[in-house]
Amino acid sequence: MDNKKLLLLVGALVVAIGTALAARSLLAGSSAPQAAAAAIAPRTTHVLVAQRSLPVGTIITPDSVQMQPWPKDMVQDAYFVEGAFSKDKLLGTVVRYPVTAGQPLTKGALVAPHDRGFLAAALGPGMRAVTIPVSDNTGVAGFIFPGDHVDLMLTQSVNGEGGGAPLKATETVLRNLRVLATDQSTETEIVNGKSVVHNSHNVTLEVTPRIAEKIQVSQTIGTLSLALRSLADNQAELDKAVASGAINLPAGASKADEEKALRAIANRPIEGNTSFVTGGDVSRFQRKSVPHADTGKFANTMARAFGGIVGAVRQKMGLPANPATPTVTVVRGASASQAGNGIEGAAGSMITSTANGAGNAGAMAGPGMVAGAGA
């Protein structure tokens, strides 16, 4: 091979290598901007969303909502955007429309306590609002807030037919009543992250129409008082409802199904199967039952009935129905008398004789001795 062909071959090889290096550099340079573009995260902001399903009438509490990242280009004007509102001011508002878990809350979905129709929005379907007066003693010293659940107790004194001491009793007539408002406030006042306790004079409860009638009658019978229920009672009530067949949960029920059933139990007032305590259960000096008719009249009635039975039996035996009354002879000194009223007549005669004997003794002793005995 001559030198001319060798130079051409070397030149072609150099050009090929240079072209390969240039192409590689171009490919590396074009991929770098793509990686940089992929590293740029989409712009987001935080909006208020429902932490769980919120049916109509739900009162907003700190555990029912949360802030969650949301794409900025999908944010609507009705959303509660972080920095544009105070979460504390939304506590105590009521859900007007159903909101699913994870769905952003809108301003039109909530009703503020001072808005028109707030209390009506807080009521569940078919429910009513009724107010009862309370005091520090009957209202748990003000530690009842909107959204809590309470039991209603009735304390009364029951008079019987005998005219004796009345029966004192307290009965839990209604259970699991949801508190809608205390006085004229439907929200809990928060100061420095803590709930402020106020002494309430009235409490508004969510009840069924029949329970509303019962409460109105109860106020005319005795004194009503409230007992605050534990939050853990909801799960216990759900277990009882499932065991009794009131709620039918399928074998493969999901967690969402259980939560839905739990919310239904939590907001359902319970009536019937009342429990009570009487004064006799507290003190041995109090009654345990309602006073009956006069015991003397009862005894006489029973005696007459028993006497009639005895008389009928004696007639069957051929004996007189009313046997002759026995007589008792009472001897006083040289005189004797008879009492024909049986034992009672004899006892009366003896008492009379004793009194007469004491009088005679006083006469025989003389005025001086009687006066000295009196001194």
**Helicity, as a percent range:** 25-40%
Structural class category: alpha+beta
End-to-end gap = 174 Å
Tell me the number of strands.
Answer: 14
Low-pLDDT segments, ≥5 res: 341-375
Strand content: 15-25%
CA radius of gyration: 46 Å
Structure report:
With 375 residues, the protein is α+β, with helices and mostly antiparallel strands. Among the domains are: 41-122, Type Iii Antifreeze Protein Isoform Hplc 12 (Alpha-Beta Complex), CATH 3.90.1210; 125-232 and 270-308, no CATH class. It has ten helices and 14 strands. It has helices spanning 3-39, 87-90, 118-122, 209-221, 233-244, 255-266, 279-282, 295-316, 342-365, 367-374; strands at residues 44-50, 65-71, 94-95, 110-111, 128-133, 149-158, 167-182, 190-191, 194-195, 202-207, 223-228, 270-278, 328-332, 335-339. The strands form five sheets. Strands 5, 6, 7, 10, 11 and 12 form a six-stranded antiparallel sheet that branches. The protein has a two-stranded antiparallel ribbon with strand order 1-2. A hairpin with a 2-residue loop joins strand 13 and strand 14. Helix 5 (233-244) crosses helix 6 (255-266). The longest helix has 37 residues, at 3-39. Mean pLDDT is 76; it is low at 341-375.
Q: How is the topology of this model organized?
A:
Elements lengths: L2 H37 L4 E7 L14 E7 L15 H4 L3 E2 L14 E2 L6 H5 L5 E6 L15 E10 L8 E16 L7 E2 L2 E2 L6 E6 L1 H13 L1 E6 L4 H12 L10 H12 L3 E9 H4 L12 H22 L11 E5 L2 E5 L2 H24 L1 H8 L1
Antiparallel strand pairs: 1-2, 3-4, 5-10, 6-7, 6-11, 7-10, 7-12, 8-9, 13-14
Helix pairs in contact: 5-6
